[in-house]
Model the fold of this input.
Amino acid sequence: MRLDTALGALRGDPASQRAAQLVVEAAKGRWRSSAVISGMAHDLADFAQGSALPECARLAAVFTNPVVAGRIVRDLVTELVPAMAAEPLGQVPFRHQYSRGMAVQQLLVSGGAAISLVLYEHHASGSDARSICFTDSERHEIALAGTAALQIVRRGPMQAGRADLTFEPITLAAGDMLTLCGNSETKLVTTIRQRLLVLRLARTPANPQPSLEFRVSDGTLVHRAAGDRADSRHEMMAALLGQMRRTEAAPVLAQMTRSGSDHLRWEALRQCLALDSGAGFAALGVIARDSADPLSGTASALRAQLIEAHPQLAALEEYPCPAS
Done:
């Protein structure tokens, strides 16, 4: 394996690593300390707490004016690029990722709100996409450079596992603005004519609805994921406890069926039933009998199916539910 001499020298000299990073962090600090960026950061906190964009004057001034938005990014480039050129082994001082022709760099974040730079390269086109995902978020975007063909995709109410999808073709070019709200509309980038650079303001609510992925051809639901990362973590924990056959976790799983998102509660119920049929069936009965519970109908149907297949479960109706 070849080890670059510069990298080798850096590896053996932690002090120089820190010195290089201080240079790029200082550049970021100068950009962050400007009056415009400080004002944006202050308003971003209000926006994250639920204020409407027009109520956040300094934030709105950026995301309703392409000239102002472009100036902010130019100021960042002016500070950061010379610092990165001087210290090429320094780390980019922003959270960033790159995948399949799409790069995202998060510039400011507060709670569930963030301002990011998003770059779409030519091979980021989704013209052959087989599915499309709707997430519970509000997004305001301004194109700073480049041009692309897009489709605004909207979905109707979901019935029997599918939703009607409508597609509105648009062109997004430098200076254009776009707003997408909620989990009923999203965008599909179909053709990148020139690399597209976008400044994005996004907000996720405190209790987001699940993300839904539909097949483009017929609107069939192909995947559902928790909108809240904490729910996703708890679902994985519940599934892991089930796979490990940790029967002592059944009371905890039964308790989890009483609060949280419907998706998390149902996963906890599944695992509880698998680990301890008595505790799980008791928890199922509690949900089925609560007509105000959105899972009541599904739980009632499952209860009936289980009793039909396993009549002995009827004797567990009096089992004390650990969740009560």
Q: What stands out?
A: The mean pLDDT is 88. The chain is about 40% helix and 25% strand.
